[in-house]
Write a structure and sequence with these properties.
InterPro entries: ATPase_P-typ_cation-transptr_C (IPR006068), ATPase_P-typ_cation-transptr_N (IPR004014), ATPase_P-typ_P_site (IPR018303), ATPase_P-type_domA (IPR059000), Cation_transp_ATPase_P-type (IPR050510), P_typ_ATPase (IPR001757), P_typ_ATPase_HD_dom (IPR044492). It is found in: Cell membrane. The chain is an alpha+beta fold and 1174 residues long. The protein contains 44 helices and 30 strands.
Length: 1174
């Protein structure tokens, strides 16, 4: 029975041991079959999903990206390799050959893309499409001034537009330059020096001078200086996580273990990766851009990047505005000819209409909004390299995230303990605190035994030495001699020691492999590991050496013998290793301090828990011990580790500890928040499918059984299982097979299989290459997603560059990834992305509010021109006062929208579709037709009231500008009883007071309502007509309610064109009042105004600045002169505009109430949501 049990155990053990590699093995088999075909076709296939790209460029880059796939340097015999590189594995290159190769291959460094000069970057900011629109507006103003120099307002307007345009460009330039400066501080990719064997001598050389064929010595803790083929390995392990996404350390050896895939073979180490354990020696096979990382960096350049979504939206908006402005300008230019205006006057008016439609202050608002948000995100440790990328993040509908170092911590952590035949959650005591209720009991004998065994069997320690980066920085300091450098090193070490004592165990650096590091960080808070180890001295073997055997990949275990005094023993054998190997070495197991013989129940329990840990993607370590009997192993016993003169196969099983690279603490919540916001989170990793799926579950990316699990559970095909689950894990080689299957299909039919996979809401891509990540991103974009890609490794960088918004990790991220990204999470906190999404959505909403706010006043600026041209009323608003609104009173409130709180549903609504634009037809209708008209009422009503107070009935103002009459002299005085009303020129023409028909054509002219040519005339003497043979007044004049004297004419405003200047200022204030109420109505898109509250103190500051500007424009004489304004009485200070302002506010709140009240329970939105929400 026992042997049958062991036989079954061996079968299941073999299955368990290879569980995580089964899918990979199958994929490798497929890969072998397709290798030749891939090599021939790969160029054409990798980027076929990308439309609109230059095909020739794609082919070159795809070939470069896959060059390492066809390399043979890892599989050819060593003698052939030596011949190829003219080197010797023992003595290395000769100096002459090395110098010649350096000339041929160049420096061993990645090519840096040529930096754009600062002045070109500044010019780029000053020549965006929006900036060009403003430059065109300024040019038109100067043209208008050239045509009509008597009106300097166009000159002032042109100058101010140029100043505002220049300032906003400079602000954006400096903000982006600041981000670039922070980026430059990240650069630290290649080690400065490395050990090289040349001419048979080991010497230090700058790593940048390495050439193919050099023999290099790899030291523990150092970066690999080039792509090398391993010649010797002393338990050398490398961290390839930045390249492949695997968090486990990988053993390197001289044997080629994978003929077809260089990334999988053990006899290659890659440039930029880190040697974490052991040491070795190897031959350099590739340097610089020819390394794997160099090829991937080249792929980054090929992937390119399109305009940000905000830039595209602003360009669409500019086109809208340009078309509207030019169309209206042309229409009224033609109407002017029909009416009979001179060409120059028509052109000046057309320019005025065009300029009135250009929101001059909006560019400044966008710049300020993005800059302030970038600073806000910087405070939250999010570096924005491109300001416009903030909004792109807000419109994101899909996040393709790397696993290792992005979703996970990129460090192994204890996950579970199994002892006494029970599983316990291995929560860290330092992290959770002393008051937390732990599943394991520190005082339980089973835990104590496992604790002691694990600590004694591990050799990892905490590293108190100064970090290598700091040492390199000091050693490379310019201007210091060696003595000064040594002093600085000592000071830095002392400071480091002080900081080290303050660090938590989780923060402290370690020396040792990832698994043992996880063990000591778990057990150190329980009891000091040094104290535990010092409590048991390692026994001596026959050669007087420590009786310990290190772990090796053949035996899959490590053991040591320690002096351990008990009643029956002087020595104790402690063993650690692969769980199935340790289990096979044991005949019994500890259970609550008792030793129980292994039986079928124990066998099933062990196999079950080990398989469970494997399915969860956890790495498992087994532990065993054996107290050696006193009578057989007395003090001074000569242990022989080679002959195993002790009962090694009769140990007592202690327990299991499972390890995993866990998700970062706030990642699961952040993923849930993304899903709530309608954002799909896809894991794209180079790690094994089993591990990827397990982490995806912990991150809440996968929440149900996957298609593969259902397929195995029910014994059905993949196609049948595909429709029974929303969760899917795809191996990267399936993407390769898909690309080959798609060859020859029409362009629209390619990628159909990928689109089916992407339709799953819970999706993981495992074992993906950098080029495949590009295909995935392109597929998501093809589905209409705005894609954000997060990552930290070199393998993530092409996809980061290709994405609509690329996000790199600041701490663990590689230099290549950071350089490709648009944003960098300085604290590596994935949840910061959620903050960024919220800020981005808020920016989009607030920019909508700002645009609606600005366009509303545009109508108030345009309609007065139209009234002046069509109805020939006096001009209610001058172009210079339009300037005062656009870049004066409007710009401060417009900017304070940035500080408005987001609508309550901002993170529960679906991401905006690509059909939903920043400026939509609904927004234009709201701004132009609804609020724009009401705002114009505010201005006009105030204007009519003001002119009425100065003697003009509103009806009399229609077509008053085209009335020709005989003008009086400046010295004439109005007399209602005089037949000529005091007009001496009429008296000269009609001496007897009688007239006949029209006035003589050579005596009449129009009143100048625009300039001050007739400002001193009393218009009651001018507007006289001949009726029934006698002179009569044209209008029945209103009473002069305000007897106010103009400071310029020294005459009353009543019945003069000077009243128009006064009324223009009043019209201006009416618009200001309307805009204040308009601001309140636009503070939220759906929330009630009362819900929004008044916590935005910047709003009050904006209103205060607006109020002070109006005061200055009205009561500071120099401004009166420059802007043509007048000092107003309080009754004309926009007071009459308040009723229409309140109507505007009531309409806005009523509109939002109907949107909220009509919300349906179904997925189909109501009419108000479809047709009113902008």
């Amino acid at each position: 029975m026992k042997s049958a049990s062991k036989s079954a155990s061996m079968i299941i053990t073999m299955f368990t041991q290879q569980n995580q590699e089964m899918q990979l093995a199958q994929a490798k088999k497929e890969f072998d079959e397709m290798a030749k075909e891939i090599a021939d076709r790969r160029k054409k296939l990798l980027f076929q999903l990308e439309k609109g790209k230059k095909k020739e460029v794609e082919k070159v880059d795809a070939s470069k990206a896959e060059k390492f796939k066809t390399m043979d340097e890892h599989r050819i015999p060593l003698e052939e390799l030596e011949q190829r590189f003219q080197t010797n594995a023992k003595t290395g290159l000769t100096k002459e050959v090395a110098d010649q190769k350096l000339l041929e291959h160049g420096k061993n460094q990645l090519s840096q893309k040529e930096k754009e000069p600062w002045y070109m970057k500044l010019i780029h900011e000053l020549t965006s499409m929006f900036a060009w629109l403003l430059w065109a507006g300024a040019a038109l103003c100067f043209l208008a001034y050239g045509l009509a120099p008597e009106d300097p307002s166009n000159l002032y307007l042109g100058i101010v537009i140029m100043v505002v345009n220049t300032l906003t460009g400079i602000i954006t330039f400096f903000q982006n330059a600041k981000s670039e400066a922070i980026m430059d501080a990240f650069k630290n990719f290649i080690p400065p020096e490395t050990l090289v064997i040349r001419d048979g001598q080991q010497q230090k050389f700058p790593a940048s001078n390495l050439v193919p064929g050099d023999v290099v010595v790899i030291e523990n803790g150092k970066r690999i200086p080039a792509d090398i083929r391993i010649l010797e390995s002393n338990e050398m392990k490398v961290d390839n996580s930045s390249l492949t996404g695997e968090s486990l350390l990988l053993l390197r050896s001289p044997e080629c273990t994978n003929q077809t895939n260089p990334l999988e073979t053990k006899n290659l180490a890659f440039f930029g990766t880190l040697c974490k354990e052991g040491n070795g020696k190897g031959i350099v096979v590739f340097t610089g851009d020819n390394t794997v990382i160099g090829q991937i960096a080249g792929l980054v350049e090929s992937s390119g990047g399109d305009d940000t979504t905000l830039r595209r939206e602003l360009n669409v908006f500019i086109k809208y505005i340009a078309v509207i402005a030019i169309s209206i300008g042309v229409i009224f230019f033609v109407l002017g000819f029909i009416i009979g205006y001179p060409a120059i006057t028509n052109l000046v008016f057309a320019i005025g209409i065009i300029v009135a439609n250009v929101p001059e202050g909006l560019l400044a608002t966008v710049t300020v909004a993005l800059t302030l948000t970038a600073k806000k995100l910087a405070y939250k440790k999010v570096l924005v390299k491109n300001l416009e990328g903030v909004e792109t993040l807000g419109s994101t509908s899909c996040i393709c995230s790397d696993k290792t170092g992005t979703l996970t911590q990129n460090k192994m952590t204890v996950e579970n303990l199994w002892y006494n035949n029970k599983k316990y959650k291995g929560l860290n005591r330092e992290k959770m605190g002393p008051k937390y209720h732990y599943e394991y009991d520190l005082n339980e004998i089973g835990f104590k035994t496992l604790h002691e065994t694990a600590v004694l069997c591990s050799e990892a320690t905490f590293d108190t030495t100064l970090p290598q980066e700091q040492q390199i920085k000091i050693q490379n300091s310019i201007g210091l001699n060696q003595q000064q450098k040594d002093q600085k090193l000592k000071e830095a070490q002392d400071k480091w020691n002080q900081n080290f004592q303050k660090m938590t165990c989780q923060e402290k650096p370690t020396i040792g492999d990832a698994s043992e590091t996880a063990l000591i960080k778990f057990f150190q808070p329980i009891n000091d590991i040094i104290q535990t180890r010092q409590s048991r001295q390692v026994a001596k073997d026959a050669e007087n050496k420590m009786a310990k055997m290190p772990f090796n990949s053949t035996n899959k275990y490590a053991f040591l013998i320690v002096e351990y005094e008990t009643a029956d023993s002087h020595y104790c054998l402690l063993t650690k290793g692969a769980p199935e190997r340790i289990w096979g070495l044991c005949e019994s197991a500890y259970n609550n301090g008792r030793i129980e013989v292994k039986d079928e129940k124990w066998e099933q329990s062990f196999l079950s828990i080990n398989e469970q840990f494997g399915r969860q993607g956890e790495r498992v370590l087994g532990f065993a011990k054996l107290h050696l009997p006193k009578d057989q192993f007395p003090i001074g016993y000569q242990f022989n580790l080679d002959k195993m003169n002790f009962p090694f196969n009769k140990q007592v099983f202690v327990g299991l500890i499972s390890l995993i690279d866990p998700p970062k603490d706030n990642v699961p919540y952040a993923v849930i928040k993304c899903k709530t916001a309608g954002i799909q989170v896809i894991m794209v990793t180079g790690d094994q499918p089993v591990t990827a799926a397990a982490i995806a579950r912990q991150c809440n990316i996968i929440t149900e059984k996957t298609v593969d699990e259902i397929m195995k559970e029910k014994g059905i095909s993949f196609e049948e299982a595909f429709h029974q689950s929303n969760a899917l894990v795809i191996h990267g080689d399936k993407l390769t097979k898909m690309a080959i299957d798609d060859e020859g299909l029409p362009e629209d039919d390619k990628g159909r299989q990928l689109q089916e996979w992407l339709s799953k809401p819970q999706l993981v891509f495992a074992r993906t290459s950098p080029a495949q990540k590009l295909i995935i991103v392109a597929g998501c974009q093809r589905r209409g997603h705005i894609v954000a890609v997060t990552g930290d490794g070199v393998n993530d960088s092409p996809a980061i560059k290709k994405a609509d918004i690329g996000i790199a990790m600041g701490i663990t991220g590689s230099d290549v990834a950071k350089d490709a990204a648009d944003m960098i999470l300085l604290n590596d906190d994935f949840s910061s992305i959620v903050v960024g999404i919220e800020e981005g959505r808020k920016i989009f909403d607030n920019l909508k509010k700002s645009i609606a706010y600005c366009l509303t006043s545009n109508i108030s600026e345009l309609l007065p021109f139209l009234g002046f041209v069509i109805f020939r009323i006096p001009l209610p608003l001058t172009t210079v006062l339009i300037l005062c609104i656009d870049i004066g009173t409007d710009i401060f409130p417009c900017t304070t929208y940035v500080f408005e709180e987001a609508d309550i549903d901002i993170m529960t609504r679906r991401p905006r579709s690509q059909d939903e634009h920043l400026v939509s037809g609904k927004l234009l209708v709201y701004a132009y037709v609804q609020n724009g008209v009401l705002s114009t009422y505010c201005g006009y009503f105030q204007w009519f009231v003001t002119l009425y107070d100065f003697g003009f009935y509103p009806s009399d103002l229609l077509f008053i500008g085209v009335r020709e009459t005989v003008l009086p002299k400046d010295t004439d005085v109005y007399d209602p009883n005089d037949p000529w009303f005091g007009n001496s020129n009429l008296k000269r023409i009609y001496k007897d007071g009688k007239c006949d028909g029209e006035f003589p054509s050579d005596e009449v002219e129009e009143i100048d309502w625009i300039y001050a040519n007739h400002a001193k005339l009393d218009l009651r003497m001018a507007y006289v007509e001949c009726k029934d043979g006698k002179l009569e007044e044209v209008f029945k004049w209103a009473p002069c309610n305000v007897n106010l004297v103009s400071p310029y004419t020294k005459r009353p405003y009543c019945y003069s064109t000077e009243a128009s200047n006064y009324a223009q200022t009043s019209f201006f204030y009416g618009i200001v009042i309307g805009q204040i109420t308009n601001y309140q109505g636009l503070r939220s898109l759906k929330n009630a105004g009362t819900f929004q509250g008044f916590s935005n103190y910047y709003m009050f500051f904006g209103f205060w600045v607006e109020f002070m500007l109006t005061i200055a424009l009205s009561y500071v004489q120099v401004f009166n002169t420059v802007f043509g304004t007048r000092d107003l009485l309080f009754i004309h200070y926009g007071v009459s505009a308040i009723p229409f302002g309140l109507i505007m506010l009531l309409w806005a709140e009523g509109r939002k109430y109907m949107i909220r009240a009509s919300k349906t329970n179904s997925n189909y939105p109501s009419w108000w949501e479809r047709c009113v929400v902008f």
